[in-house]
Design a protein that fits this description.
Distance between the termini: 86 Å
Pfam family, one: LysR_substrate
Family: Belongs to the LysR transcriptional regulatory family.
CATH architecture of the largest domain: 3-Layer(aba) Sandwich
Largest sheet: 7 strands, mixed
Number of domains: 2
Order of helices and strands: HHHHEEHEHEHEEEHEHEHEEH
Radius of gyration: 33 Å
GO molecular function: DNA binding; DNA-binding transcription factor activity
Protein name: DNA-binding transcriptional LysR family regulator
Oligomer: single chain
CATH class of the largest domain: Alpha Beta
Number of strands: 11
Structural class: alpha/beta
InterPro entries: LysR_HTH_N (IPR000847), LysR_subst-bd (IPR005119), WH-like_DNA-bd_sf (IPR036388), WH_DNA-bd_sf (IPR036390)
Helix content: 40-55%
Length: 319
Amino acid sequence: MPATRNNRPSPDDALTNIVAGNGSKSAVRLHQLRYFVAAVDYGSFRKAAAALAIQESSISRRVRDLEDELGASLFIRHAGGVRLTVAGREFLRNARHALRQIDIGVAKVATVGRAEQGHITVGIFSSLASGFLFDLLRNFGERHPKVQVDILDGNPPEHVAAVRKLCLDVAFITGTGAWDGCEAEHMWCEKVFVVLPDNHPLADKPELDWADLASERFIVSDVAPGQEIHDYLVAHLAGLGRHLDIRSQQVGRDNILSLVALGRGLTLTSEATTVARFPGITYRELADEVLPFSMVWSAQNDNPACRRLLSLARSMSKS
């Protein structure tokens, strides 16, 4: 006589379907697992119900539904309470593991949602030596010490392109214009300063204007923010009737300042940089010139840490 095959799922198979999400139509629910484990821990439905602050009948009914779903009895009921069957002991090991993994996952998601942990990438176009951006990142780090913050230098178009692609969470750049596909909000302004050798004749003046600079040679870096400084100089000096002398140097921001000290030319910088002291140079404010800075981000970005940074930036900007 041919053997009859039992097609009922084992308790292990049913739990695997629940946790792995392999397409099973199992009706087992998370609360059923919690009620089952509580009944084991307390030795009776009555004590488990009291601990969970629910009706005893609710636990009894949910455990019975679980047994029906699994196709196996999990408990032997007796006057003093319940004890596990062989199937129940086997199911308990996996049920505890599943609940433990779910609790770990919930805790991790909660910490990310509160920005207690996480990662954020910030594009900048300003010095971090002082000012709004320095204060913002310092305050954010103090409030969210476990969030990793990566800082990337670059020019505004590159940063905005990265924000659109969600490669950057947020960028802080000059200007107040709109950017297609991005959100933008004005945050702060910085004064513009001329950087010149400390023995330059103009160093004797407390403040400079564009007419003072019409005949000067300027140097800019070939990396950000060199091109923007070049364009800024052209926009303001071209109408003064003098030949513009602006030379690009293949060095970074700090070495440009050293070249100024060596007498190779003048350059411009923003207010945040002026706290950094380099030998042989001095800073002079350029009259009536300010640079607005904006925060740019994507509405599609769902990074909780980014949302916290945006919120903090808005709060600091208004204070």
